[in-house]
Amino acid sequence: MKWHLASYGLCLTLLTACGPENPEHQVQKAFETCVKAVETGDPAPAVEALAKDFSGPEGMGRDEAKLFLLGVLRREKVGITVLSSQIGIKGSQAQQSVELLLTGRSGSELLPQEASRHVYLLRWERQKGQWRLRELQESR
Fold this sequence. Notes:
It contains four helices and five strands; from the N terminus they run αααβαββββ. It is globular and about 45 Å long. It has one domain: Nuclear Transport Factor 2, Chain: A (Roll), CATH 3.10.450.50. The two termini are 19 Å apart. Helix content is 34%, strand content 42%. It is α+β, with helices and mostly antiparallel strands. The protein has a five-stranded mixed β-sheet with strand order 1-5-4-3-2.
């Protein structure tokens, strides 16, 4: 179960950003949209934002991430509280560090069964005008 919560951060970063805003705002907007998608249990927008060569925890690729999200979000409700988010942009590359409080509950339970704090490093890349998540790793 702990690995599941640690990997929930994977789906937090998985939506593209576009528009006239500056790159930092685009990445933050994509991140916030992904948080909402995960909390509502809809993995599709999150998976869409993954780069084709995505690399996640424990060597997870794009296809594995999709299957993981489909399985987890079907049986558990995930809550995400963003404690901090810092974004740095260098050309078409972005790095985001986020600290999250992740909660999980099953079925119709009202209170979370599990809660844990995690810090993730997200590496984004602008591809064809959209930000795609290339890498997600938990940091300590």
